[in-house]
Amino acid sequence: MSSRGHLVLFRHGCAASYIIPILMYKRICTWRKLCEFLIIQNFIFRNCANQMGEQIDFLMPHFDQESDVLFVETPEEILVYSPNKEVEALREIICGRMQFDERVLQRVLDCGLDAESMCLLNDADLADIFPKTEIGLRIKFRERLSHWRQNEAPTLSPLSSNRSEMTSFEDFKNSEIAQNNLEEILNASPKGKNIINYHKENFFLLDSHREALIGIIVNYFTEKNECMAMKDIANFSEQIITLFPSENMRYYCNRREGKNPTGKLYDKATNVRRKHNKKREHILLDDTDLSSRKDSAPCTSDQNAVADKLWLAHNMEPWSEVVKKWNATIEIRQQDIFNRKVNIFTDWPLLKNSLGYTLIAIDFIAKYKDSANNLINEWPDFRRLIIPYMRDKIKDNASNNMLLMIDENVDSDSTDCIITLLMHSILKPPLISTGNTPNSKRFKWKPSICDAQNVTVLHCEYINDYQRRYDELKSKAMEKCTTLQPLILVIGEELKSLESYYIVFDGVLYKVPTFVRALAILFKLFHVFNLKYPIEAKFLYDFMEKYFFKFDCSVNSNLLLLINYLENAKKCLTKSAKCLSALLVILVDIIQNY
Question: N or C: which end of the chain has fewer CB within 10 A?
Answer without folding.
Answer: C
